[in-house]
TrEMBL record:
GO terms for biological process: glycogen metabolic process; negative regulation of mitophagy. GO terms for cellular component: mitochondrial outer membrane. Belongs to the PPP phosphatase family. This is Serine/threonine-protein phosphatase. Residues 294-318 are annotated as: Disordered. It comes from Suhomyces tanzawaensis NRRL Y-17324. It comes from the Eukaryota. InterPro entries: Calcineurin-like_PHP, Metallo-depent_PP-like, PPA2-like, Ser/Thr-sp_prot-phosphatase. It catalyses: O-phospho-L-seryl-[protein] + H2O = L-seryl-[protein] + phosphate; O-phospho-L-threonyl-[protein] + H2O = L-threonyl-[protein] + phosphate. Keywords: Hydrolase, Manganese, Metal-binding. GO terms for molecular function: metal ion binding; protein serine/threonine phosphatase activity. Residues 119-124 form the Serine/threonine specific protein phosphatases domain. Its EC number is 3.1.3.16.
Amino acid sequence: MTVSFSIPTSDLDYCLEQLLDHKPPKILPPETVQQLCHTLKTQLLGVPNIMHLQSPISVVGDIHGQYHDLLEIFQIGGSPPTTNYLFLGDYVDRGYYSVETISLLITLKLRYPDRVFLIRGNHESRTITTNYGFYSEILNKYNGSADVWSWITDLFDYLPLGATIDGKIFAAHGGLSPSCQQLDQIRAIDRFKEIPHDGIMADLVWSDPDTEIMDFKLSPRGAGYLFGLDVINKFCHDNDLVQMIRAHQLCNEGFTSYWNGKCLTVWSAPNYCYRCGNKASILEILHSNYDSKNGSKTSDNSFDDPPGKLRSSNPQGVLPGQYFNIFEASPENDEDTISGKSVNGINTDINYAGSDFFGSYFQERPKRQHIEYFL
């Protein structure tokens, strides 16, 4: 039986000081990471698969180990606890600072449990992190030991799968599933495990919207599905929702609005992989003062306008009370691009024996990669 215990606030503040007040930030000792992970797991045991959150809240998409850009998000959107944050997953892999990024988010979640909320993405997985950088980064930063990787990936099994905001907006990392018509089906999932190859849990973290189709279609990623307008209209209608918010896809302008705001993609890793040159965003939701029953499909694939002006004239394609705060990569992101070197002296030119070293993902890789793990 797991025995619950808490970490003193002073200890959490000390961890934040190590990560935030030093340049470069200090790596937390293994025994500290172990205690942080164990404490957060005991707290997450009582959290449902779909969290019930309220506005105002800021929604953050993929971060992928871009630690300095995460700090930029807090500069732009406000630091916890002054701002409520919902993070949509994909905290690690690809970037140079996955260890620092996930350490900071875990500490912030423990320090401000009612202000910071984390859900699971497709990269919160043992299989993916072994191949896309997090595992190798930990080996390098912790002198060849994989203990920290084991503790953090065990914690990933406890992360919720989604959230509702004001009961009207559904947020998940990826998208919808042909096996799921009701939110209650997600609530009934046993989430405390590695992400499976298929099924509702896999589709939630792997699927993508597609404006060219109406129904479901197999995804070219090799996992999850593409879903169209009919799918999201029915899902929202059946669950009394007005919108889905998700991450998972690189957006050159930092965000994408589908079907006049019925589905939004928020992307929060600027200059992704230190070479894509894209912008990033956070989605600020101030309120949701509109009637979900009036958000119906019309012949031009848009929303009918209820008295509460559900259709937004905002050029961002969002609903009333929502705003994409767009930002560029931090100066430190540019420095990483030039030097090809991460924090604490880990250089991407070093080859670590017996592993797929994470630096290779930033050296002459194509911009678009197909996932091959579920073929």
